[in-house]
Known about the structure:
- The protein is mostly helical.
- It is 59% helix and 0% strand.
- The chain has 2 helices and no strands.
Amino acid sequence: MNKSSKKVITTISVAGAMLFSPAIAQNQQPDLEQLKQQLEAQRKELAAERRALEEQEAKLAATKRALAEQQRRLNALQTQITGKPTPGQTAETRETTPPAQGAAAPQPVGQAPDASAQAPEIPALVETRGVLTPRNSLIIEPSLQY
């Protein structure tokens, strides 16, 4: 390539860039409008998600309050039944729960077994024979097979 052809190519390139610059700028306008619309849609979506999150947080707080109330009632019922506070019960809850009504001292149920009716004593294996055959003894067990 010689110098003159390089100048021609450079001139054509500059002229083409000047011609297509307004077209590129016009093509960017719709892209900019489209981006603005997308941004606005995302803002609306984000606001809706925030509202949903706030609603869920409110429901969670209400559920936690209901759970705490149920736990307090359960502890009060257990205290009424057993007469003793549960291990997880706080001092405030213990003070506010009324004492168990009708709770009497424990009484024995039924009759105790007689002292004379104890189980018979069984001699230990050491005193009698062991599980193994004693030394210097022979045991014959007669049997008949047919």
